[in-house]
Each structure stands twice: as C-alpha cells, then as structure tokens.
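Dear Dr. H.,

I hope your travels went smoothly. While you were away I took the liberty of generating a structure for the chain from your last submission, since the lab meeting agenda had it listed for discussion. I wanted you to have the full record in hand beforehand rather than looking at slides cold. The sequence, exactly as received, is reproduced here:
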Amino acid sequence: MRDQKQPWMMLASIYITQYIGLAFIISAAMAILRQQGVALDKLALLNLIAIPIIGKIFYAPIIDKYRLHFQGRYRSWLILAQAFMTLLLITAGAINLQTHFSWILITLGVYVFFMSIQDVSVDGLSCKLFDETSRKFASSIQFSGNLLGNIIGGGLILMLYPWLDWHGSLWLLATLTCVSLIQIIYYKEPEETAIDNTNSLIHKSILKDIKPFIIQHKRWFIVMSFYPIGSTCGFALLNPLLVDNNWALEDIGFATKIFGSIIGLFSAMLATPLISYLGRVKSLVSVTLVQTLALILMIPITLGNTDKLMVYSAITVHFISFPALLVITATMIMDKAAPTVHKATFFALQFSYASLLGFAYSALSMTLAKHSSYNLVVTYGAIITFAIAIFIWLMLKQDEAASEAYPATPQQRT
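The corresponding predicted structure, in token form, is as follows:
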C-alpha cells in the first residue's frame, strides 16, 4: 500500500452516494411518478437519463488529462461532480411533479451525467492510490457501497416516501450526497509520482494508446466478451418470470432488491479473502461455477415451481456469486489500468465494455425467451456458463503465471 492511511470511509461514502440517487430514480421514482398519475409513455423516458453512463469512456480521457483549480487531479473532479449532484437533487426536489415532469427529466438527466463523472474520477483515484495487495479490498468497498446505496435509494427511501413525500425524499438524498462532498473537501490527494509526471510530459494521444492497451491484454478482453453471460441470462428473466407466475410486485421488489442486496453485501466483502486465498484467476473461475449453480436452481422456477423456498434459494446463490464476480473483475481491471498514465480512461474502457455486453446479453436472453421458452434459455445458459468457467481458466492461467514470474516494471508502463 502506498500510504498506510487510506481514505476508506470517504471511498465507501462516495460509492454509496453514487448509487442512492440512481437506484431511487430507476426503481423508486418510477413507482412514485406512476402513482402520481404520470403516463406510461412519459415514464419510459425516465430510462433515457441513464445514457450519460454509457458515455463514460468518451470523457474519461478529459478527467485523466486535465485537472481543475482544486488540489488533486481526481479530487478536483470529485468536488465538481459531488457539488453539482447535491444541487441538482435539491433542484429536482423543488420541482412540481404534476406540472413540470419534463424539467424533472432534464434535471435528473444532468444529475446522472455528473454522477458518471464522479464514477470515472473515483475509479481513477482508486487506481492511483492502491497497490496490487489493497486493490481487492478497494473493489469490495466499491461494490458493497453500491449495494448499500441500492438498498437505501431503491428500497428504504421508497418505504419512507409516505412521510417524506417527493421533496423530502430528494432533499434527504441531497443531504447524504453532501456528506461525501464534505469528506472530499477535507481530503488531500497524493501528488503524482515522478514516473507519472515523466509520462505525462510525453503527452501521447490517448486514442493511440488504446489499441496497444487492448492488444497487450487481448486474452482479458476475450474473457470479458463472454463472462457476463452467466450473470445476465438467468437473473434478467427472473422478474418477468415471477410476474407471469402471479407474484405481487412488492414481494418481487423485496426479494430482489432488499434480500438479494443484503446477501450481496456479504458476498462483496468476502471476495477479498477469497482473492487472497485463491488468487484472481481461480477466484473468477470459482464464482463463475457458482453462477452455473444459480442457473441450475432457476430451471425448476422456469418449469413453474415458484414457491418461495425455490425462488429465494436461486436469488441467494445468484447474489453470492454476482457481487463477488464484480469485485474480482474490478480488481483485475484495476491491475491493468493502474500502471498506465490514463488510469480512469482504461478503467472505464474495460468496465464499460463488459457492462455494455452485459446489457446486450440481458436483452438477448429476453428476446430468446419470448421466441422459445424461459426453460430453454436458462438451461442453455447454465451449460454455456460452465463452459465459460473452463474457458477463463485456459485463457488466463498462463497470463497469471507470467505476471507473477515477471512483474511489470516502470519502463513497461504505457
């Protein structure tokens, strides 16, 4: 670890506030606005506010290249992002739901834009701060914080809505976001190392650096092309499957949002000792095999066995594997981005690539289920996921052995 005193509490707070607003908008606000009489076609527009998240890779190079007039390259962008996130939540809370829906949509869209700037900045800061040993714990903090934010924003705030109302809910979110802002203001980011400064002076084009980076890690990019299949092809079908089997919406929400996220919190934290014990590649293979088990448990559900024991068993195994998978992959992504000058850019490049494919596989699984059956998609998904676990081992075990035998030197950094 480069600095014995790392800002764990600040990072946890940032990752929590990063998702409380998004979870509230995607989950809670959808139900609240519908209850207020907003038409379904207008509600569909709410999904458009997530577009800035997809564009992270385009403005990550700006965050890597420039610093604002605050101390610290990534801290300066975090201050800007958190300040605007707080102000935009206050503004959205002051807008009338019934008469100014369009303005709410615009305000929340701009909020998500600054949230994505915060996301890129904190990932860049993590790559800068943590060495190979501490990255796995940093990744656990990240996804534990995301899940806790999901519970607060998507679940607890919705439960408190009858007392808080629209204004109170948004202003409570703004207050929680402001806590992170205060922590960032009092934090002092370490200055660039001599190597980083030297490489920064070379000032290569980031676009020219992307191709060599992908070639250097081609095996990893091939793995990222396939591993999201296991985590998406089954769980993406669970909600519509339960709706088709007459589960109440509140029961579905509790099972997948509250119960699942609580299991996920433990999974994300236990991923750190798992990586320490097995190593990165073996851990990734192990959780992929657990995902295979989760898909196998979903097969009886696709055949109509939707009693609570069966459903909760499948959800439990899915959330044991999925957050751990995110922690392990984020650790490996950080390993590859940290030695470079363009830390935030190359972190965003890898994570956005895997996330985009995850959304694509999720949509594809729903399309296939519509034209065939839930059972066929989940069964084939389980077989494919098992094959992917073997594929990951074959693709990455040589790279892991090579990295342990010949660790990267400063001269090899791009």
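Two observations you may find useful: The longest helix spans residues 135-185. DSSP finds 17 helices and no strands in the chain.

With kind regards,
E. W.
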